[in-house]
Structures are given as structure tokens and as C-alpha cells.
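Question (not urgent): is this output format expected?
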Amino acid sequence: MKLKFTSVPQSEIDRRIENLRSYTAKAADAVIADMVDAHNPITDAMGTDAEVTARAVVDMVSAAMKAEKIVASKVAADAVADLYSAATDKPLPLARIIAHRIPRPTHNDRPGRVGSFCKWRCETEEGVVLVASTDYPLADSAAVLLILHGLPDNTPVTLRHSDKGHDHYRPMKLGTAAAHGIKRLEDRTMLRLSRVAA
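Got this back:
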């Protein structure tokens, strides 16, 4: 089955349909619980201790599988809703980060490093400064957009060097791009707090 939506890549649609198939198979397997329901409770109380114990185990398995069937049905319903929203929701606008190179200062004693770059100043396309100086332009800028500017974590984001006419990265989710920057921010905060405590 092929579904075509203008706002959703076919690969994403295929992935979600495959997830639906797996959820459906999981729900179908759960109906085995119904097979152990057709027994006579009077007969269940009779027989050897081993038989009664075995029936009790079957009943516990039945209850567990019924609960699993309910969970699987909910997962399938959520997947359908996810697929529908992917096809109908208006996609979020792309957030493009513009990275400007900051040249290293000239060192007379190290002429080999003159002209190299190691820091970046990052801003939005509208000129709003996100990070004044960083070694990680995408991660740190994405963290600022996520934490300070409140953009949704599923906002597509990319980065473009100011002297280039094309993006340096394919668009990715803001939450994914910001993960490394947020982790380093948390590490720096913990280090600063540990120094204050010492």
C-alpha cells in the first residue's frame, strides 16, 4: 500500500504503516486469550492437584493476555492518530541557524595557526543572536531555541554558514539537534555548583 501526502515524506509514511502492521499483529496474537476461556468451572474444581494448579496457571495467563490485548489496541489507536496527524497537520516552519566564523587572533609565535577558525557566532535568519561564541554552533544554538525561545522540539532545524549559499545539515528535529548542547549545559552547571559547594 502506498499513501502519498504532500507534507510528509514517503519514507515516514512507510515507517508508520510498518509500525501499524506490527501493532496489529501484536493485537491479533493477544486474542489467544479467548481460547482458554471456554472451560467449565465445575470441571476446573475437579481433578488432581496438578490439574487444578495447571488450570489456575492458564487463568492467570488468560488475564495477562487480556490486559496485553487492551494495551496493544491502545497502541494501535495511537499509531493511527499519529499517522493521521502526520498527514493533516500543517508542518512547522524551518528554523535556520546562521553561523558566522570568528577568526582566531593572530599569534606571532604561532604563524601556522593564523587564519584558522574555531569559534562561531550564531543567530537566526532575522538577525537575533543565539550564541555569541561557541565551538558547537548547531547544538548550542538549538538548545537556545528550545529552552529560551520555546520552539517545539519537533521543529525542523538546520544550520548554514554565513559565507555559503546552502545549508550545512539536512533538517532534523530541534530536540535531537539540541540534545548535545543541553547535556553540556547541564554538565557545566553541575561542575559550577560542585565548585561552589567545595
